[in-house]
Amino acid sequence: MADDRPHDVSSLTAAELERARRDLRVSLSLAIPGSPVSVPILARLSAIDTELAARGAGGRVRVCLCGFATDDPDWLEGHLSQHPGHHERAQPGRFPASP
User: For the chain, where are the E strands, in sequence order?
Assistant: First the structure.
């Protein structure tokens, strides 16, 4: 079953967001790949990453076509490996212009 509830994390402090992200990453690492339990974990992680990106936290934010966003390149690679049909979305202004 998909978790379609919104995950409003805007009221959390940056420290609370980082702690929640760390705890969720640990939970995800303990889940069996492809397990339904990963769906709500990934949804919450996406909400946290999006909120941190909106606040300007971290470095360059990378975004998947599904909307998952993170400034951690390893985390995006893990997401892409768990979802073979997903790809990183090109972001305007992030890449040099073609000659």
Answer: 62-64, 69-70, 88-89
